[in-house]
Amino acid sequence: MRQRRNPGFGFTLTELLIVVALFAIMAGIAVPLLINVADGIKLGQATRDVERELQAARLRAVSSNQPMRVRFNCPAAGQYRVVELVGTASQPAAADIAADRCTLAAYPYPGNADKNVMTRPNNDGPLRTLDSTVTFSNVITLEFWPDGSAHANPTNVAANPWPPIAGAGTTVTLVKGSKSKTILVNGVGKVQVQ
Questions:
Q1: What's the rounded Cα separation, in Å, for the pair 109 and 50?
Q2: Per-residue pLDDT at 113
Q3: Quick one: what percent of the chain has pLDDT higher than 90?
Q4: What CATH number matches the domain at 15-193, 3.40.50.1820, 3.60.15.10, 3.55.40.10, 1.10.287.70?
Q5: Is the per-residue pLDDT at 83 higher than 70?
Q6: How distant is the alpha carbon of residue 26 from its chain centre?
Q7: Counting CB atoms within 10 angstroms of each CB, which of 32, 58, 130, 174 has the fewest?
Q8: Domain ranges of the chain
Q9: Nearest-5° Cα angle at 58, 57 to 59
């Protein structure tokens, strides 16, 4: 005798289609959220990298007793580099312009291994690059002096020496899509992510 299957076991085609449709709806909701989280992670990582480079520039200025500049979008968009000021804060050398100082061909990293003050720059940093989807929204060159103070020339005029950052400070803003993060630098050289 043949046994009949009990209709209570298994799934019908309709039930399977309903489950597949629910999974598709859930995936449709989750994917944009996951992309948004991934964008936030990339922006956060880029912000922390820039903040660490600013902290390192200040430390290098104090420890080497030489003014250090942090140049953004240098030499191309999304790149940044810490460079030792050639000359002095009040009389920078003519070569200390972004178009020249940002190129690794003219000023390679590592620089002079002898650390001779006569063959400066000795403290230029490597050329750093942001994630290709992250950009700087406001571009301002910052300068850290040997006393740890921070200076900026927001109008990019030939003011020497650059004025100290006044008031609440100046910001470096990084953008990815519709999200942004800000790094605040004040006149005494304090660097913090907002």
A1: 18
A2: 59
A3: 36
A4: 3.55.40.10
A5: yes
A6: 34
A7: 32
A8: 15-193
A9: 90
Number of continuous H segments (helices) and E segments (strands) in the chain = 2, 9
Show the DSSP H helices in 65-173 as ranges: 98-101
Asked whether residue 94 carries a pLDDT value surpassing 60, the answer given is no
Place of tokens 């300068």: 143
Region of 189 (left: φ > 0; alpha: ψ -120 to 50; beta: rest) is left
- Structure tokens, 63: 């420890």
Q: Look at residue 130 and give its three-state secondary structure.
A: coil
Q: Which residue has the tokens 């740890």?
A: 148
Contact between 83 and 69 (Cβ < 8 Å)? yes
Longest dimension (CA), the chain: 105
Q: Give the residue with greater pLDDT, 93 vs 27.
A: 27
Task: Look at residue 193 and tell me whether its pLDDT is greater than 90.
Answer: yes
CA 41/CA 29 separation, integer angstroms:
19
Task: Give which of 114, 111, 105 is closest to 123, Cα–Cα.
Answer: 111
110-151 pLDDT, tens digit each: 766 566 656 667 788 888 999 888 999 877 889 999 999 999
Q: Which residue has the tokens 């999974």?
A: 23
The Cα 182–Cα 29 span in angstroms is: 29
Q: Which residues of 158-173 are buried (b: 16+ CB within 10 A; e: fewer)?
A: eeebbeebeeebbebe
